[in-house]
Specification:
Layout lengths: L3 E18 L4 E14 L4 E6 L4 H15 L7 H10 L23 H23 L3 H4 L7 E7 L10 H11 L4 E5 L5 H15 L4 E5 L6 H11 L4 E5 L8 H10 L4 E3 L6 H9 L5 E2 L8 H14 L3 E2 L5 H9 L8 E4 L6 H5 L1 E3 L2 E3 L2 E3 L9 E2 L1 H6 L3
Parallel strand pairs: 4-5, 4-11, 5-6, 6-7, 7-8, 8-9, 9-10
Antiparallel strand pairs: 1-2, 2-3, 4-14, 12-15, 13-14
């Protein structure tokens, strides 16, 4: 049996050339927590986490790593279920009387679910390496190139409204056939101006999605949707405020012809289930690296497929392309950042990984997730 020998977190953060904004927040860096798991027979698996605060997530990776040390490294579901059990009360959990940590703090659930996800992803990497096959082959995929789109149009406070159009046009010139624009940070009239310029710049044959970062209440979002419908928008992503629920998404879906995309902020399949089952979504964007890991992402994707909702994971194409490969009927594709200004780590962190070329992700045949870390870069940007 291949057993978990050690679990270690590495926080990495590279400063952006200049601050960027979404409708919700200012961005100063590109960051990731790498989870390195070693086994007693010499295998190493790497997981990724995108979340914050980095220090808190690393502490939970270390704490949970001690819980699973000695477990079968290829039994990722058993590990996942054991770790999730720590997030709720247990009959013998008070004071850790069962030998496990006492129930973990409710207020830390985002960081805990992120840590569980990073550990889980590393175990999938180990499983592929133990069997000598890529994860996409473990899942029954064929490893063919997968469709990808580039995200841009982050706000720069002093930039002209049309600056986003030039950036998206550059993506198209480099082979992308779909682009996503950050929106909803300005007035609806200003956003229409940005969207009109972007559509004109990329042409009518390129898919154009809008990412709203949960900027609107229901009524304002309906107004926004009606205003942008003439520009052939492929989806509205995270359109409603964080606290609004599937019933609100249903009302929005009934009010616009534009499909809705959602899921990156959901922590488990149970909340993702309610959005999928509501019938409001056209696309599910569950992110393995934010919360709960690849095991949960696979569960969410199976449920989405059963409801006719397309699988379109949020970012991290070197991991999520393996997932989409397993859903040839309803796998839409994966998200990429089109240039190093927004995500410098993706362009520096690896000595080997899936490649993005001409609007497709090209996976390799290496076992596991097929990426290798440049540890000099990890040291350079250690946080």
């Amino acid at each position: 049996m291949t057993c978990i020998a050690s679990v270690k977190a590495h926080a990495v953060s590279a400063k952006l050339k200049h601050p960027l904004w979404t409708a919700h927040e200012e961005l100063h860096s590109s960051s990731v927590v790498l989870v390195e798991i070693k086994t007693d027979d010499g295998l190493t698996g790497i997981g990724q986490i995108h979340g914050s605060p980095l220090k808190d997530i690393c502490q939970y990776v270390d704490k949970l790593g001690e819980v699973v040390r000695g477990m079968d490294a290829t039994a990722q579901v058993a590990v996942w279920e054991k770790l999730l059990s720590l997030t709720s009360p247990r009959p013998t959990g008070m004071g850790g009387r069962d030998g496990l940590p006492q129930p973990l703090p409710r207020g830390d659930r985002p960081q805990i679910m992120a840590a569980i996800g990073g550990i889980d992803i590393a175990l999938w990497d180990i499983k592929g390496k133990a069997l000598g096959v890529p994860v996409w082959k473990l899942l029954g995929g064929d490893g063919k190139p997968l469709f990808t789109y580039a995200t841009g149009g982050y706000y720069e406070l002093d930039a002209p409204l049309s600056a986003c159009a030039d950036e998206l046009a550059d993506f198209v010139n480099r082979g992308y056939r779909a682009v996503k624009l950050k929106t909803a940070g300005l007035s609806i009239a200003q956003e229409v101006e940005r969207i009109e310029a972007s559509r004109s710049a990329v042409g009518n044959d390129v898919l154009l999605m809008l990412d709203m970062n949960a900027a609107y209440d229901l009524e304002d979002c309906i107004r926004f949707a009606h205003a942008v419908e003439p520009y052939d928008i492929y989806w509205l992503e995270e359109p409603l405020h964080w606290y609004l629920q599937p019933a609100d998404f249903v009302r929005l879906a009934q009010a616009t012809t534009i499909p809705l995309a959602h899921g990156e902020r959901e922590m488990t399949r149970f909340t993702a289930r309610d959005f999928i089952a509501s019938g409001a979504l056209g696309f599910m964007q569950f992110d393995s690296t934010r919360f709960a890991g690849f095991t949960e992402s696979l569960r969410v994707s199976h449920l989405a497929e059963q409801h006719g909702v397309r699988v379109a994971p949020h970012l991290v194409p070197e991991i999520h392309a393996h997932l989409v490969s397993a859903f040839p009927r309803l796998g839409f594709g994966v998200e990429s950042h089109g240039n190093a200004d927004r995500d410098p780590l993706w362009f520096e962190l690896f000595t080997e990984r899936a490649q993005v070329k001409d609007g497709f992700v090209h996976m390799n045949d290496l076992p596991g997730f097929g990426f290798e870390i440049d540890w000099k870069t990890v040291k350079k940007y250690a946080a």
